[in-house]
Structures are given as structure tokens and as C-alpha cells.
Amino acid sequence: MNIHFSNEGLYSELVSATLETVVIGSVAYGVATRESDKDSVSIIASNDGLFNTHHMLQYVGDVDDEMFITLKQFINLIITGDQTVLYEASFNCTGELKWISDFANEGIFNSYKVVNAYLGFAKRDIKNIKKKYSANKLFHIYRGLAFADVMMNGGTLNEDIFKALKKYKEQKTMATEDIEFHIKLVSSKYDDLKAEILSRLENKEIPFVMSMDNMKRVENKYNEYIKSNTYNDKFKEIEYEELFYNAIENGVTY
User: Could you say which of 1.10.3470, 3.40.50, 3.30.460, 1.10.150 is the CATH number of the domain covering 2-108+211-249?
Assistant: First the structure.
């Protein structure tokens, strides 16, 4: 969930405090079409403020979706699974925050809670796509199931699936038999993964949340990093709490 803003002064401050920007969404998976936005998450060095919640700030000043989140909250939301897109982003840090990607590739963020978050979103979208077909929704279902599978069984994402999804998005249509085939496929895959994760949790083969030892490793690295010159040179106290309170008070729909 994102809180939208268009203030260019705030946008400039957030950009200047950015440690690293990670591309997410359809562009990251090679399924973008000419009509797709280029979504990104910028991880900033700033006071946490509203980022103690699961909300991110989203700049709406141009055609692309640019989200901003503090480093502390970025890590927190990876661990809790409250924003699955940030789990995915954690693999794609290549600059100053490559240490986060090193942790992600090691698998220490993998837990029942994160896997179950992906499966929950997939279940919701499978229910909705049965009512109304959407190539974008189908992409999100496959994406969620793929990450759940990778977390439990290793391996990598199936690029062939995403190539097929791009074709459907470009065509903006799908034959009835293709729709029924994919619904049956993702429904079966969801059932298999749900049964597997419950079995693994019961047999203590996967932690409910990240283990205490791994949390300590991440905490130590985080505390070391925020003392670095790189972090402190970027750090800015930024006033954005009012955006959050206004959004809650006025019943903004995210």
C-alpha cells in the first residue's frame, strides 16, 4: 500500500537521500509492454517516521511509479512478508546495498510467513481471475507461486512462463481454452504448495519467521552499515509524517 504525493520539493529530498533504486514489476521480469510503467523502489537514508508502518511513499509526478522507503523499514518488510514486492527487490541490490542481496541469495529471508503471504495473494487472484480474466492478474499469480516455489525448493524463476505472459499482455486477449488451462494449472500448483508449506512447518523444516540467529546477523550488518560514511553522507531528516496522518484521517484509498 502506497501513499501518493506530488510535491516536487519532497521528491527532490527523497531522491537526494536515496541509497539505491531497484526496478520491480513487469520490467524486472521482462513482461513489460509499451503501455507498462517502469516501477521502482528507492531505499533511502532518513528518519523512519511513517515508515514504521507497511506504507511506502509513491511519487505521482510522472508516468512511472516511484516508491520510497527507509532502509530500516525495507529490511523489516522483507522479513515480515508484509510487502512481498520488497522480498523480490532484495535480490536486485547491486550497489551499496549488495549485502542485502547476498543475504537474500543465501535464503535467510525465507520463512513460512513470507511463503504464505505469496500464497495468500495468489489465492485471492485465482478467485478473481475465475470471474474476470486479466493478463496482469495471471502474471501476478505466476509470479507469486514461482517465488513461493523458489523459497521452498530452490531453483530459479521459469523465464518461459513470463515470456508467454508477455504475449498475452500484448494481445490483451486469450482463448477460452487457454484461460481454463492456466486457471487449472495455477489452482493445482497453489494446492500443492500450500500442502507442502504446511507440512514443512509442522516438521520444522522451515521457520515460521526468520530465525533469531539470522535476524541477529542482519541486525549487526545494518548497525554496521548505518555508521558508514556512505549512509551518513546520504542521510536526511525529511518531514513526511503529515502525509501519512492525512491519508489515515481522510480515508484515502490506496
Answer: 3.30.460
